[in-house]
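This section describes the prediction task in plain terms. A model, or a person checking by hand, is given the sequence of a single protein chain and must write out its three-dimensional structure as a string of tokens. No templates, partner chains or ligands are provided. The sample shown here is typical of the held-out split.
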Amino acid sequence: MKLITALLLFGSMYASAQSIQHVDYKIDNDQVVVDYDLVDGGAQNISLQYSINNSLWKSVPLHACNGDLGVVETGKGKRIVWLPLTHLENLSGQLKVRVYGTNLPQSINTSMLLVKGGLFPMGNLQGKEDEKPIRYVKINNFYISKFEVTVSDFRAFVNATGYKTDAEKKGGSYIFNGERWETKKGVNWRFDPSGSPRSDMEDNHPVVHVSWNDAQAYCNWLKNATGKTYRLPTEAEWEYVAGNADKHTKFSWGNYQPFNIRVSNLADENTASVLKWTKSSDRIFWGYQDGFVFTAPVGSYTPNDLGVHDLTGNVAEWCSDWYLTNYYNQNQKDNPLGPAKGHSKIVRGGSWESSPKETLTSSRDYHTPDFRSCFIGFRICYTEH
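The expected answer:
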């Protein structure tokens, strides 16, 4: 194998060029050894990329290299060892390599919260048929993000991977245009619930127009980058947290209807005026105003008793489970994972446009894995083994 290595470059919109310094390389037999320092800005997701004869940059597969890749903390003397022959049969011409870094999403840097497991009554005898019967379910300890995944978080994922969402591949997302619900072409995760492009001021709003498939891809990226088993919460885990564990409250803030106290971003009178819902509508928390028409910045309201924000309202949230109407009759009581297969995935929590009944912690919704809309986002969790 002939290696003609010309340049070592670093570039990223979301990692300061000054944070990766003193990059050096050497060729040792069939190995490319790259040394660098990561000096500022906190931990980053580090990858090694290559280009042959000025072709598009590609990431080196993790199985082909070792050393300081994935989530790397700041420090000097970092090293990556790449064995090109493990995945490239022919390598000739000009080889360029670069150390590439992206900032990790805020949701995994500072906001993962340990939830102590326990036993709780799941379901609602006064709810819809699919919320019955009540059954006592055991949940083990796990970690969940205090906040919903934000636009900024999701951008870090897209910039690191080049991922294309279902909305981008399949022609848009579901919005309310002021008169009716419709799929609007061109709308994707970069847009707000009205179908307008987001401003930079909205980077801390929950990402919307993402499907279950997109949320799963985000979790897989974090899992590969960090080695932790990031995933979507199960339906049972979600209800356990939203209902304040064994208290099993009606809403994440408690059992009372909101009026003068701003507790969450709900379908309020501001929403009614924009969506043209009348006083006869049962979709509105009449007499309540939360300060926002559509989504609110994550963490805008007081968290629930477990320290988690926005479980009721803001955006509804994808869960990992398949949906089955009578699943509660199957008596799965120990960390249930949901049916083995299905047509639609569980959505929980209600959103900025959901009716009071839809925002109950026991309420179940569902959509196909490729469905995307102006009212669904997600949060992440993981379990330590």
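For orientation: The radius of gyration is 23 Å.
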